[in-house]
Amino acid sequence: MAFDLMLRGGRVIDPSQKLDAVTDVAFANGKVVMVGNELKADPGTDVRDVSGYIVTPGLIDLHTHVYWGGTSLGIDAEEFCRISGVTTAVDTGSAGPGNFAGFRKHVIERSEVRILAYLHVSHAGIYGFSHRVMVGESEEIRLMNPIDAVAVADQNRDLIVGIKVRVGRNSSGTSGIVPLDIALEVANEVGMPLMAHIDHPPPSYEEVVARLRPGDVLTHAFRPFPNTAATAQGTVKKVVLEARERGVLFDIGHGKGSFAFKTARAMLANGFYPDTISSDVHLLCIDGPAFDQVTTMSKFLCMGMPLPDVIAASTVNAAMALQRPELGSLKPGSVGDATLISIQQGQFDYVDVVDEHLIGDRKIVSEGVVIGGRWWHPQQSSKFKQRVG
Questions:
Q1: Is 65 marked as binding a ligand?
Q2: Is residue 264 scored above 90 in pLDDT?
Q3: Which residues form the Amidohydrolase-related domain (predicted)?
């Protein structure tokens, strides 16, 4: 088979294969076809010398908001992915059953970047989230639309990976935990995972986590007090440990108000790594404190999480949460997505959502991406020697 693209001589870190080695990666017909040393290029192969850089499976950001133009919090997926090395952006509830058709037609189907979605159980998704208007969509029970959510999820199984709901004082107000129970009914009916947002109580962290099923995702898992995963003594709450034991997944979902270094330090000190690292990027946090996926990953790297684990939390672990094993891997036959990163050394100022700063000594930088087996919008293409055979 003739190769369309070859990444030559990079350090390939692919946790799905427990691979960490300097080697080559070849792509053809939109897929990964071979990983090995000194692969032979064919006439017409686009060969990129990526020695000195790290090649990972295409990064998956499990929590984004990319319904640009359809919601006030949406950002442009392609622009974001160029900057942050993301090849799969998972939109988490920007759209509900009342407006998913527009999201699909006007954004998802036009995007070169893969966009998957958790469908919100609220009719119009997260419709009132801006600098001036902040309305919790789950406050109004009349907006809960479980019947149509089941129909829309069932009709769009190629793109919809689960059901989303937001609960907490800011998002469900006096409705409390009721929207979560409605969303769980929908998820059970369509046989999909649920992603639950949690903010200030009520309901409590314990109440939310206790309801989640194996394969469900709690996002904003390392949020600040109140409703944090850690106790005042710096241990992991018992309900959290029990939830992980039964298969609940814990996602970062950094965002504007949902990640604290204090919580993260406590969780990591107890050996409780997040299952997935995600940015929760949207219009109100893309200029800080979240910024993007690689910045969120960098924070965990600087707090002592090993690089292969950081990469796993943004590749194979996310793919498993999505039940899309063809993603997040460089195994032959996998989708032909890859991300090229470098690790810069120096002093870098990172900030969390409560304005605590961390001076880190490393920073993960996106250098370019491969989507569907083709080199796509590299950050600085002049860095890489291109040779067309």
A1: yes
A2: yes
A3: 54-343
Largest Cα–Cα separation, the chain? 65
For 71-102, write each residue's pLDDT tens digit.
999 999 999 998 899 999 999 999 999 999 99
CA angle 72, 192, 252 (to 5 degrees): 55
Q: From start to end of 142-286, where are the E strands?
A: 160-167, 194-198, 217-218, 249-250
Residue 347 neighbours by CB under 8 Å, 6+ apart: 359, 360, 361
> For 153-180, what is each residue's pLDDT tens digit?
999 999 999 999 999 999 999 999 999 9
- Separation CA 287–CA 80 (nearest Å): 11
Q: Per the structure block, which two tokens stand in for 170?
A: 């800011």
117 DSSP β-pair partners: 91, 160
If 0-12 CB within 10 Å is exposed, 13-18 middle and 19+ buried, where does residue 128 land?
middle
Peptide bond into 179 cis (omega under 30): no
Spatial neighbors of 157 by CB under 8 A, at least 6 apart, are none
| Residue 63 marked in a binding site | yes
Give the list of residues 6+ apart from residue 10 with CB closer than 8 angstroms, or none: 22, 23, 24, 25, 50, 51, 52, 53, 54, 55, 340
Q: Residue 256, annotated ligand binder? A: no
**Tokens representing 243?**
């939830």
Per-residue confidence (pLDDT) for residue 136, from 0 to 100: 96
Euclidean distance between the first and the last CA atom of the chain, given in angstroms as a whole number: 15
Q: Extract the tokens encoding 82.
A: 């160029």
3-class secondary structure per residue, 318-332 = HHHHHCCCCCCCCCC
**Nearest to 296, CA basis, from 260, 256, 254:** 254
| CA–CA distance, 350 with 362 (Å, rounded to integer) | 11
Q: Is the pLDDT of residue 128 over 90?
A: yes
Q: Is 164 annotated as a binding residue?
A: yes
Q: Spell out the domains of the chain, with CATH numbers in brackets.
A: 61-322 (3.20.20.140)
Q: Six-digit token pair at 317? A: 């672990």
Residue with tokens 């009719």: 123
Report whether 282 belongs to an annotated binding site. Answer: no
CB 340 within 8 A of CB 53: yes
User: Is the pLDDT confidence value at 384 over 50?
Assistant: yes
- Spatial CA neighbour of 62 closest among 216, 167, 204, 189: 216
State yes or no: 280 annotated in a binding site.
yes
